[in-house]
Amino acid sequence: MSSLATAPAAALQGLLRARELGIVLALAALVAYTAAGNPRFLSGQSIRDILLNTAILAVMAAGQAVVVITRNIDLSVGSVLAVSAFGVATLMSANPSLPIVVALLAGLAVGAACGLLNGVLVRYGRVPALVVTLGTLYIYRGVTYSWAGGQQVNADELPPHFLRFANDSILGVPWLVLIAVVVIGGVSLMMRNYRLGREMYAMGSSPQAAELAGIRVARNTIGAFLLSGALAGLAGVLFAARFGTVDAAAGTGYELNVVAAVVVGGVAVFGGSGTVWGAGLGALLLTVIGSALAVLDINQFWQQAIVGALIVLAIGADRLVAVRIAGSLRKRDSHV
Amino acid sequence: MTALLEVVDVTRSFGAVAAVQGVSFPLLAGEAHALVGENGAGKSTIVKMLAGVHRPDTGTLRVRGADVEFTGPADAKAAGIAVIYQEPMLFPDLSVAENIAMGNQPLTRLRQIDRRARHANAERLFGRLGVHLDPDRPARGLSIADQQIVEIAKALSSDARILVMDEPTAALTAVEVDRLFAVVRSLRDEGAAIMFISHRFEEVTALCQRVTILRDGRHVCTEEVAGLSVDDMIRRMVGRDLSALFPKQDVTPGDVVLEVDGLGRAGVFADVSFQVRAGEIVALAGLVGAGRSEVMQAVFGVDRYDTGAVRLFGRPLPPRSPRAAMTAGMALVPEDRRQQGLVMDLSIERNVTLPRARKLSRLGLLWGGRERREAGTWTRRLQTKLGRLSDSVGTLSGGNQQKVVLAKWLATSPKLLIVDEPTRGIDVGTKAEVHRLMSSLAADGLAIVMVSSELPEVLGMADRVVVLREGRVTAQLTRAEATEESVMYAAMGRPVTAP
Question: Looking at the predicted complex, does its ipTM rise above 0.95?
Answer without folding.
Answer: no
